[in-house]
Amino acid sequence: MIPNPKILKSIEKLDYRVTVGDVAAQAGLELNFAQEGLLALASEAGGHLQVADSGDVVYLFPKNFRSILRNKYWQLRWQQTWAKIWKVLFYIIRISFGIVLIASIALMMVAIIAIVIAMNSSNDEREGGRGRSYGGGGFFMPRFWIGDIFWWFDPGYNRRRLQRRRETSGNYQMNFLESVFSFLFGDGDPNADLEENRYSAIGSVIRAHKGAVVGEQIAPYVDKADEDEDYMIPVLSRFNGYPEVSPQGQIVYYFPELQVMASQRGTQSISSMGYLQEKPWLFSQANGNQITMAAGLGVLNIIVAFVLQSLLQNGAIAEIMSGQSGESLVMFTASIFWLLLSYGILYLSIPLVRYFWIKGRNPKIANRNEAREQRAIALKKPSQSLQQKISYASQFARQKIIGQKDITYTTEDDLLDQNLRDRDKIDREWQQRLESDS
């Protein structure tokens, strides 16, 4: 079984000595899942179990446990290798859309120029060489556009301005070919790790209140909060929590396993606003100039395609191009003309659909954020009833730190060595038992 990456990261963040509750709260994982993962990882990575007097278990891992796992699992080695390969492949995929678009425009323009030159040559032959002209509007227009394109992609284009922007912002600026992909498909889901962040924040809130909370303290981190507090059911299930009813009929929740810690440490950082914030979708992270250029190339592709179509509709083109140097290129372009036009239409249609989809989605995200913010504000000014609930919940608040002095057994040492080392402690325990029996 390949170890869960979230568990590995949590162990490293928690300094390699953890309880199940530590990992579950840190990573937002189900307690049972975290326990199974820790046991399997301890077995495979040379971890050790430390058992306290209370029966609580602490997991201790060597700091090189990732190296141990890599040597054992070819899947992990392959994952790391594939991650590097995929990074290169994905970059190639990203820039390929821009390359295909530029190649499409360039191919059609060259075909247009070849057709115009052939038509002018044919006219000259019919007119006996008189009135030779290469300055027609149909010729100059493509030549001007081609010049623009190569100017746009000149390595020295506007270099000083871009350099100043990098120096002032310190942020990475995607190149134009990357911005084409961003214009088409965006830059991924900004809330891809929302559920992980949600339960990690909830675990942190529970830890901050020593394992005992009321529903209103969790409400700023869920999407919908109802009076029946049904939103607490998945939280109880994930962290093995228990509800308790106060004498006034109010429900509070406590989580015994999140009260046990391997060491004293500060609580995880929660949102400074005190609630879960979803990030709005961005159309693109490319700058305005890059988006304008990317859209402009899409429009240019369609315009050039229609110019080429108007020329190809001339039935005499095949005869005019016969024997000309660009005949094969024009015929090839004509054979894939509809593919080139379709690519240009899709190139502009996909961002347009995505734009309206984002416009419809972001207001819903804003509404959920606002609702969570209002619940967080209400929590800062609790009513008398809420104060009573919080006071009752504090009765179940506990924090148990399992230090080295609390350990009675560990798999690090031989059992006989542990008994010799702890003989004084064992003698005291036996003495206490004899006195209690008497």
TrEMBL record:
Keywords: Membrane, Transmembrane, Transmembrane helix
Classification via InterPro entries: At5g03900-like
Residues passing through the membrane, by range: 88-119, 139-157, 291-312, 332-357
Phosphoprotein is among the record's keywords: no
Protein name: Iron-sulfur cluster biosynthesis family protein
